[in-house]
Amino acid sequence: MPHLPSEELIHRIQRSETEYMYDRMQAIEGRTGNPEGIEMVRFGQALCLYSKTMPWLSFNTVKGLRSENLKDLDAIIDFYQSRDRKFQFEIVPAMVNQALLSALADRGFFQSAFHNSMYMNPQELVDMPDNGIVIKRIDKDEFEDYAKVHCLGTGLPVQGIPSVAMNNRVLHARPGWRFYMAYVDEQPAAAGVMHMNHSTASLTFAATLPEYRRRGLHQELLRRRIRDAKREGCNLVVGQCAFLSQSHRDMETVGMKLGYVRTTWTERQPESSAE
């Protein structure tokens, strides 16, 4: 019989996604002078993330929204509108009711995307023969290489490499964070990141340079992080991916299962008038 995730497991998966982003943003905020203009505010269980200099939606997101946040919607929206920032709500099944969704629609928001949250018990990882792929933990002086893979592997402009390096270097010595690099012919080819807290490991990021894709690097980065999570005593591993993407296929291959499909809600933009 298929095993469906319990409501408790769904909340645990969601908490891990909120916790790692909170810790990441808190570390970036702690850089001298808070150069990225990080602000975070909570409304009950809902966490509002904001960055003045990083306009990407992943840094301007409402996480952990629940039905009881209905009374907070206007204050949440005002938090971002007063900063002239486009943002998104992440909606997790079983955490919101029809009244809250209807209220979002009434305020001009619509369901604009889907994203998978995957999970597994690391004890269930099946060992595979050594395939020769070299993966190492990243040292603090290797974050320029990491940032190159991060930017070029995700389509970010190369001008962002110094900022990405700085914003991730601050996590290196922070409890729970681990950074990994996969090499091909001794050259950095793919990277992966993991955050561990409360016996849960979150696979927070992975990217492969275009010229090294379809060589099994992402799968091996998944396996390495899951093995390390098991050794550290974690009993749950969580990861996110786009529906039916290659990352989705790789996660299924190593044994991860679908916890839920969360939806993204963004503000409807006014139609431009025809001239």
Task: Describe the model.
With 275 residues, the chain is an alpha+beta fold. The chain has seven helices and eleven strands. The chain has helices at 7-29, 73-81, 98-106, 143-154, 161-169, 217-231, 246-254; strands at residues 38-43, 46-51, 61-63, 88-91, 109-120, 134-137, 177-184, 187-197, 200-208, 236-241, 257-267. An eleven-stranded mixed beta sheet has the order 1-2-3-4-11-5-10-9-8-7-6, sandwiched between helices. Helix 4 (143-154) crosses helix 5 and helix 6 crosses helix 7 (246-254). The longest helix has 23 residues, at 7-29. The mean pLDDT is 94.
Helix-strand blueprint:
Elements lengths: L6 H23 L8 E6 L2 E6 L9 E3 L9 H9 L6 E4 L6 H9 L2 E12 L13 E4 L5 H12 L6 H9 L7 E8 L2 E11 L2 E9 L8 H15 L4 E6 L4 H9 L2 E11 L8
Parallel strand pairs: 3-4, 9-10
Antiparallel strand pairs: 1-2, 2-3, 4-11, 5-10, 5-11, 6-7, 7-8, 8-9
Helix pairs in contact: 4-5, 6-7
Quick recap:
The chain is of the alpha+beta class and 275 residues long.
Task: Give descriptors for this structure.
single chain, 275 residues, alpha+beta, eleven-stranded mixed beta sheet, 31% helix, globular
